[in-house]
Specification:
The termini are far apart. Strands 1, 2, 3, 4, 5, 8, 9 and 10 form an 8-stranded mixed beta sheet that branches. A two-stranded antiparallel sheet has the order 6-7. The chain is 29% helix and 21% strand. Helix 3 crosses helix 5 and helix 5 packs across helix 6. It has a single domain, classed as Alpha-Beta Complex (Spore Coat Polysaccharide Biosynthesis Protein SpsA, Chain A), CATH 3.90.550.10. The relative contact order is 0.17. With 239 residues, the protein is α/β, with parallel strands linked by helices. It contains 6 helices and 10 strands, in the order βαβαβαβαβββββααβ. Strand 6 and strand 7 form a beta hairpin. The radius of gyration is 18 Å and the shape is globular.
Length: 239
Amino acid sequence: MGHALILTAAGSSTRMGGPVKKEYLPFGGEKGVTVLSASLHAFLSTSIFSLTVITVPENGESEARSVLARDSRLAPLIEGARSKSRLLFVPGGKTRQASILQGLEAIYRFAREGEIEMPEDVLVHDAARPWITRAVIDRVIETVAAHGAAVPGIVPTDTQKEVDGNGRIVRHLARSSLSAVQTPQGFKFEQLLEAHRSAAYDGNEYTDDTEIWGRYVGEAYVCPGDPANRKITYKEDLR
């Protein structure tokens, strides 16, 4: 089975409050390692992805390449003599949804041109989640193979309530039936591509790919995530 990967790094990182995109910030205290390079290394070190697409801001490929070049661990994993993975940089859209569609279309074109075989599945991961592990990646891929669509999730530790626009509690939710979902989310590639193409014209905004899959394809399944698989949103998250 062929696996492709989309790493999302096209956002503006406005909530970080600094001049540098959060994906380009130093990470882990090792020389040259950044949030983006740590996320990419976690996936490429598995040697199971034939193509990786990184979505970047418009005209942002040179900066992204420069950031990744500082991490000496990556060079042998990218387009080297022993490498099994190819790397593409794709300008993102105005929304995450648009960026993912750009990434999916890039994978499709690359495969149609004969550079790789058409992938069976694709994983979509927030580059701002650098603590991703091989165990979570494997569980997502296994669940995609069994059900077609998968997302890692954890049971919330806080009691959850549904509220209305005025802050009034309208429903008390049982934690045992809830899941705080993470990435990577995994899907059958061609079905997700067709779903995204349809969603681009239906007038709705979707917060993640499982919503689009659920609207146009079918059911998605949750597999065990990892509490450590956090997303960096604010400066304090890097501590």
